[in-house]
Design a protein that fits this description.
14 helices, mainly alpha, single chain, flat, about 300 residues
Amino acid sequence: MAADKKRRGFDELIARREELADVSPPWTAPAHDTGSAGSAAEGIAVPAETDLRLSAEEIVKSLPAPHDPLSTGPELIPQEREELELYENALNLAGEMFWVEGHSLLGISRGELWRETHPSFKAYLADRDISPRRAYQLMEVAPLGEYLHGSLRKIFHSVVLNEAQTKTLLPLAKRHGEEAAAFVMETVLRSGQKVTAALLKGALTVLPLDRFDRQEVEKLLQEYLTAKQRVLPAESSEGDADPAEAWPAEADRLRTVVRRVVSRPEFRAAARARPDEARAVVAELRTLLDEVEAAALTEE
């Protein structure tokens, strides 16, 4: 009965998607041409658990691309309500599909679809028992997770991707693109070894940072994976995370907050009523942003 309920929710999600207008360019990543349609090697792929998992691509395809708010008032317009329902249905269906969850949260956050029922995105997350930190982690890793899932399934038809693996490959994807991350994952999967985040992290340490040549990368990875002895890097604590990796989510959060505040009619009315105070606030913000820019341009 539970499966029937989920299936009905999914069917409704697909049906409602067809009613919405397309308001932004597709958010999904381009297809990855691996040049091979072979089956997964024995012992590599993990059997698919349910039909729902196999519908991950359909679920994401049914969702609107995340975009800026369609209106500025506190109440959602009909299309925004439709989109919120699609995203929330997807959140309920996501399960372990972290990229579906991240895509949906990004759409709700960027479109400010929480504003009719909650004072902030943080309050909306609290009602769903999701911490802000967790939400931004999911939103950051979702595009790569979606890409890897789609590209790897073309070769390893029942492979199950997890968030830790994807997060480990995120710095590589930022430097050399999502195809590079998929190539590394594919190479490690073909080795027949159990693919853990620690194994991927160790494999990445043997790759050059300034270039990505597939032949060179494949050779280095094979040497690492077949070595009789290899040292896996120690697991780092959350406090050791590279600040540069957190920048996109933090910058997006800053833009969202500033845009939301300054676009409110009451804020602009208050600024007109108290021009001196408004100029002082703007000057202070400019000073802070100048400090950020100066720090970014200063070589250590």
